[in-house]
Predict the 3D structure of the following.
Amino acid sequence: MSPLLEVQGVGKRFGGFVALDGIDLAIAQGERVGLIGPNGSGKSTLVNCMCGTLTNETGTVRFDGHQMNGLAAHERTHRGMARSFQLPRPFTTLTVAENLRIPLLYSAATRRGIHLSAADSDARCQELASLVGLAEKAGKYPRDLTQVEMRKLELARALAADPKLLIADEAMAGLSQSEVADIVNLLIKLNERGITIILIEHIMRAVMSFSQRLVVLVSGKKIADGKPDDVVNNPEVIGAYLGQ
Ligand code: ADP
Ligand code: MG
């Protein structure tokens, strides 16, 4: 079976600075992949090139059997690629449920043939809130949420488009150990429902408990890709981290 996501030779520059240098990466349907690397190694830039927020100068991104090059971010979202942002940015004047309704209606409205009634969208918002453990908070505002609840809202917003692939970019920074475990469990639950997940994370305990496979970027290059235990014991990976 062809991979769900196939990145080939992706390169991105900012002026004279090479942020990504010929990245190859294939991800199968259903996988849980951890993407790690020192700060500034190009992880978010790679996500941005996959999702269409940035345009790569070289290489190709294929997703679910289609070429993504040239497609805008919202078109890639409609094809099933979703990402959560490092810093959650909900609409502060809207409730949790309303924050979910916007991406929900937007994705339904732009997917031909789908019309959601008010009752359907209410039910779906409640379902999304429940899925991430925010059922009780559906009527609250973002300011009423704790930090971990904000991260869950951010994940639920990404899930509203019913993605095949979810890319979680540092969804756990600043959380306590038990909150990190809570988010890891949530991501595993989402994966068990069939969503392929790429987790970008610095907290190694979380990365190791989540990932079936680990990919390492250093200075815009992929230096390792394999079983987590093998990758963290790889001398080049250890050197890259210690040499920072
Ligand atoms: P990571 O997510 O791994 O911490 P990034 O992908 O955010 O790293 O950044 C990779 C490198 O590209 C960094 O050196 C960063 O400063 C640079 N960079 C990222 N985005 C931009 C941009 N929009 N303009 C210029 N340089 C950028
Ligand atoms: Mg980043």
Notes: Strands lie at 5-14, 17-27, 32-36, 58-63, 66-67, 81-84, 165-169, 196-200, 213-218, 221-226. The radius of gyration is 18 Å. The longest strand covers residues 17-27.
